[in-house]
Amino acid sequence: MTATLSGSPGKAGGDAVPRPKPPRRRLRLINRKPGRGAVVILGVIPFLLIVGGYLVASALRRAENPQDKLMPSLEAMGRAIVQYAFTPDVRSGDLILWADTAASLTRLGGGLAIAATIALVLGIAIGFLPHARATLAPVVAAISLIPPLSILPILFIIFGLGETAKVALIVIGIAPIMTRSVARAVAEIPQEQIVKAETLGASTWQLVTRVILPQALPHLVTATRLALGPAWIFLISAEAIQATSGLGYQIFLVRRYLAMDVILPYVAWITILAYSFDLALRVLSARAFRWANSAGRGL
Amino acid sequence: MSAVTVENLFMEYDGNPVLERVNLAVAHGTFTAIVGASGCGKSTFLRLLLSQERPTRGAIRIDGEPVAAEPTPDRGIVFQRYSVFPHLTVTENLMLPAELAGSRLFGRLFLGSRRRAREGVTNTLQRIGLWAARDRYPAQLSGGMQQRLAIAQALLMKPKVLLLDEPFGALDPGIRADMHAILLELWREENMTVFMVTHDIGEAFKLATRVLVFDKVRHDPDFPEAYGSTITYDLALTRKDAAPPPRLLNPPLEGGSKAQSAFGEGAAVADGPPPSRTLLAQSPTSPRGGGSMEPRSSRQGAH
Ligand SMILES: Nc1ncnc2c1ncn2[C@@H]1O[C@H](COP(=O)(O)OP(=O)(O)O)[C@@H](O)[C@H]1O
Ligand SMILES: [Mg+2]
């Protein structure tokens, strides 16, 4: 009897003594997780709502006023895309969207490349060499506090109205924070590793090339990814103020004609480009720095 | 010959003494274990032996020569953590010394010389049981594997002195026993002088031929920071399976009053050493210049 009871208390005991029914507890909200498919569907819903909301509002406005320019129809935007992306411009013979894209990406890429180089060199120097830190850390911190757009006029005065000033704005806008984050990452490399390398015969330069630089690179990629947003802001701003080509230039140009059918596809295109850049950097760092990912150090 | 002598070593941090009047003479081939309360300056002493820091006063000599002012390949080091390079695979970690020596500019070998360096470490890889894991990164290794790699890497430079700071402190007890066997084997083979800090006194008595206890001999209850630690006990162990114990012993230390507490700490684990060993201990209160070593059991030593 005892054996039965202890063997299956749920049944044998349950008959004799009515035990309280276990409440059908619903999990707390924080413990309920969507499945894989649900994640995709949930993620898509807001996009569909935005597009759907736009289409309805656009249709309503155009029903009232067929000349409405503020919320063009999908067909109108499609026509604009065909015209800008696939029809050579009457005057220049260029495909305008691609010419603008090339101009903008050249500036953005140049700015990012220069900023990344500065961040790597100064970041390693500040994070690794005590004398460099004493000399450079304060000035980098100070420069990082200057609102970059406030010195755009100075850049135009110094560098003229060409490409240099726009690239310089991006560099000045993002290099200081990138430098600081690389410097912090380098300073956090355990002292034990550096001492160990010294006992293995490494010179200061070899410490940089074999211990510091390889471990700084994943952080440089992270810093670059975080700087992409600000870099786009500075690019579009500089192009809006003074340029003859570029995505930002085009948007601000057609604004005069209230050409929402051009502006909206351009904005969508810029968003796609920004997303692709970020994705590319993320994939690059996952591939190139397997050691950092296997350490569970998320990038 | 890599005898280590320490003369009247003082170390202060921001005016707070951590170590004071440390005197020590260690014969070549000695396996010295250093034990003591947490924060008493064991790691500091090891950092001084490595020249990772400079003493406030005093001198450290290896074979009579003052040690270099910065870490150099004549002294190898294994820390509890972060001793290996996370961005290099096991093989690359072991190839690093050859690459640093072979290419002053890049610290990197290519093609044929790289292949030779790779072949040069196959033996080591097999010895430490990491052949199968040779292409893994340290983060993909267990703690024991990482420390085996760290020890093997430190030995590649054939250091005169190997320094270990709680190398097995983070490992499971079962793995620790394996690590002890590997370390003892390497120590005998390489014929080096070893200093190992450990908080596990059983480990100290199991591995070492000489055990040093660091503690404060003077204590001011109002200013716990007022005085530094020194060597309060210096025990030479003879073991059938170990090198003969060094006959060189410390100059006697003053402050026998503090001895009780130091032994109190030792007593808890003093039962540890297996009976096959004889424990030779110098009484901390023995007269200067005595150098007399009286065999005594660990129990007697503890009381
Ligand atoms: N770089 C440092 N600056 C200031 N104080 C330090 C420094 N390193 C160690 N100390 C102090 O020295 C004492 C001994 O430290 P440590 O040698 O690490 O002890 P142990 O290894 O015996 O636990 C501690 O009180 C610690 O706070
Ligand atoms: Mg310590």
Chain-wise SSE layout:
The complex is a heterodimer of chains A (299) and B (303).
Chain A: H1 2-7, H2 9-16, H3 36-64, H4 74-86, H5 96-128, H6 130-145, H7 152-159, H8 163-187, H9 191-199, H10 204-241, H11 247-254, H12 260-288, H13 290-294
Helix pairs in contact in A: 4-12, 5-6, 5-8, 5-10, 5-11, 6-8, 7-8, 8-10, 10-11, 10-12, 11-12
Chain B: E1 4-13, E2 16-26, E3 31-36, H1 42-50, E4 57-62, E5 65-66, E6 75-78, H2 90-102, H3 111-120, H4 122-127, H5 143-155, E7 161-165, H6 173-190, E8 193-197, H7 201-207, E9 210-216, E10 229-238, H8 259-270, E11 278-282, E12 294-295, H9 298-302
Parallel strand pairs in B: 3-8, 3-9, 6-7, 7-8
Antiparallel strand pairs in B: 1-2, 1-4, 4-5, 9-10, 10-11, 11-12
The complex binds adenosine-5'-diphosphate and magnesium ion (MG).
The site of adenosine-5'-diphosphate has 10 residues of chain B, from helix 1.
Q: For this structure, what is the CATH homologous superfamily of chain A?
A: MetI-like
On the 0 to 100 scale, the average pLDDT of chain A is 90
The quaternary structure here is heterodimer
Percent range for β-strand residues of chain B: 15-25%
Per CATH, the class of chain A reads Mainly Alpha
Enumerate the spans of chain A where pLDDT stays under 50 for 5 or more consecutive residues.
1-14, 295-299
Secondary-structure class of chain A: mainly alpha
- The helicity of chain A comes to over 70%
Unreliable runs of chain B: 240-303
Question: How would a textbook summarize the main sheet of chain A?
Answer: none
By CATH, the architecture of the domain at 4-74 and 192-300 in chain B is named 3-Layer(aba) Sandwich
Across the major sheet of chain B, the strand order is 6-7-8-3-9-10-11-12
